[in-house]
Specification:
The protein has 123 residues and is of the alpha+beta class. It has two domains: 1-61, Winged helix-like DNA-binding domain superfamily/Winged helix DNA-binding domain (Arc Repressor Mutant, subunit A, Orthogonal Bundle); 63-123, 2-Layer Sandwich (Dna Ligase, domain 1). It is 41% helix and 17% strand. The protein contains five helices and five strands, in the order αααββββαβα. The protein has helices spanning 2-6, 13-23, 29-41, 86-96, 112-122, and strands spanning 45-48, 57-60, 67-71, 77-80, 106-109. The strands form two sheets. The protein has a three-stranded mixed sheet with strand order 4-3-5, with no helix packed on it. A two-stranded antiparallel ribbon has the order 1-2. The longest helix has 13 residues, at 29-41. The radius of gyration is 18 Å and the shape is flat.
Amino acid sequence: MKLLNQSNELLTADTLYLKVLQEDNTMNLSTIYRILDLFTKKQIIQKSNFLENTTSVFELKRLSHQHHLICLNCKKIIYIDHCPLEKFEKSLETKTNFLISDHKLELYGYCGDCKKNLHHEIS
């Protein structure tokens, strides 16, 4: 929990395991997976998979949910600092009589560095 709380990035189970090993060399990877599964079920953390990647990433659930920009080249993840869907979500609920409990927004493209490199490769 402490590692997830201190992190400003999404973490894989393997990354968490390696960080935990630095403090407790008796921990095993299966315990990390069990803890992450429990935290996910209790809605303490959020589990995501981006693109076709089968590796799950985890982040602590915050009071306000977060959305992401994901670079297709370097895989950098940039957090969007606000939710652009709030008004749309409320309108959709009213229009459809559907109670929306959550949503995710992931936008894929190229970060500034990769965009520059991509532009140079095309020229």
